[in-house]
Amino acid sequence: MKNLLLLIILIYSFNILSGQSKRNLNFNEPISNINTKDAMIFWESFEGAEFPPTDWTQNITDSLFTWEKASSFPQDGQYFVHVLYDELDTSIWQNEWLITKSINLIGYQSVILNFYFQMSKYWGIKPYDNYDLYVIAANDGVNFTDTIWSELSTDTSTWTSWEWVNAQIDLTNYIGSNQLKLAFVYYGRDGAEASIDAISISTTGNLYDNNLDKLQIYPNPTSDYLYIEAPYNTRVQIYDLLGNEIYNKLINDKLCKIDLHTYPCGIYILKLIRQNISKTFKIVKN
Questions:
Q1: Bridge partners for 44 per DSSP
Q2: What gap in Å lies between CA 166 and CA 183, rounded to an integer?
Q3: What domains, with CATH codes, occur in the chain?
Q4: Residue 94's closest CA among 61, 57, 46?
Q5: 146 φ, ψ (degrees, to nearest 5)
Q6: Contact by Cβ (8 Å): 119, 21
Q7: CA end-to-end span of the chain
Q8: Which of 31, 136, 197, 265 is in the most buried spot, having the most CB atoms within 10 Å?
Q9: How far apart are CA 108 and CA 206, in angstroms?
């Protein structure tokens, strides 16, 4: 009985200390919550060797404690990105920006930004409010004037410190822009670690004046063949998570059959292009 009581006390104490920690003390296996049915026009999970990713940029105020890749507890794949608090000088204000490449939203009816984040409620919300995460938009790719999200935008009662939390933002107001950029911003002083991963932009409507909405992709997940029913003259491209193109073909038949036997198990990005408009999907090979 005493041993059981001691175990309960130790577990409770660890949970309290973990919540108050400046860094995520968990080292969990990746948890994949990917919805493979979403049609995506943008995807970044920081699996490539280059950082920032191609055509992304950074605004850095604290070169030792800014956005960087990490691998200890990704939400998806093997890597994520985070900012550590400046433990060397807690008087320094960290204002660290990670800015996407230009995003083309011409021709869509509705668009949703989806990503995962984690941070400390203890140091970022209550009892301390020492740091924040923001998403700031630049419709023209230059002037970041619209703060479209902060950690308080996602119901704080539904998440806990150091757990991956899904955030969704409606980007419908930016439809028509062909150079939208989004900045993921860490801002604060004497805060704690903050992380993001699995950033995607999905269309929730159809493309204007295009027949790419009239397609079928099955089965997904698949262990051998992938079938695509799409309009004639649709370009099919498949990439791995490192950005390497592993398949490229123009569909001249109503049904395209792709043999995936020789490819390793994992997640792939399928891109369909027709009339200069594209749709992107996540494909799972198991």
A1: 199
A2: 17
A3: 26-203 (2.60.120.200), 216-285 (2.60.40.3080)
A4: 61
A5: -110, 110
A6: no
A7: 46
A8: 197
A9: 7
91/94 Cα distance (integer angstroms): 9
Closest CA to 215 of 281, 276, 259, 268: 281
DSSP strand pairing (181-188 vs 146-150): unpaired
What pTM was estimated for this model as a whole? Answer: 0.71
Q: How big is the chain, counted in residues? A: 286
For the chain, the farthest-separated pair of C-alpha atoms sits apart, in whole angstroms, at: 73
Q: Is a pLDDT exceeding 90 seen at residue 136? A: yes
The strand order across the sheet containing 255-259 reads 216-218, 225-229, 255-259
Question: What is the chain written as a DSSP string?
Answer: -HHHHHHHHHHHHHHHHHHH-SS----PPP-----TT-EEEEEE-S-SSSSSPTT-EEE-S-TTSS-EEE-SS-SSSS-EEEE---SS-TTSPEEEEEEPPPB--TTBS-EEEEEEEE--HHHHTSS---EEEEEEEETTSS---EEEEEGGGS-GGG--TTS-EEEEEE-GGGTT-SSBEEEEEEEESS---EEEEEEEEEESSPBTT-STTS-EEE-SSBSSEEEEE--TTEEEEEE-TTS-EEEEEEE-SSEEEEE-TTSPSEEEEEEEEETTEEEEEEEEE-
Question: pLDDT for 213-242, tens place per residue?
Answer: 567 899 999 999 999 988 877 889 999 888
Instruction: Assign residue 97 a region (left: φ > 0; alpha: ψ between -120 and 50; beta: otherwise).
Output: beta
Instruction: Report the candidate in 24, 18, 21 with the shortest Cα–Cα distance to residue 117.
Output: 24
| pLDDT one-digit tens code per residue, 48-67 | 889 999 999 999 999 999 99
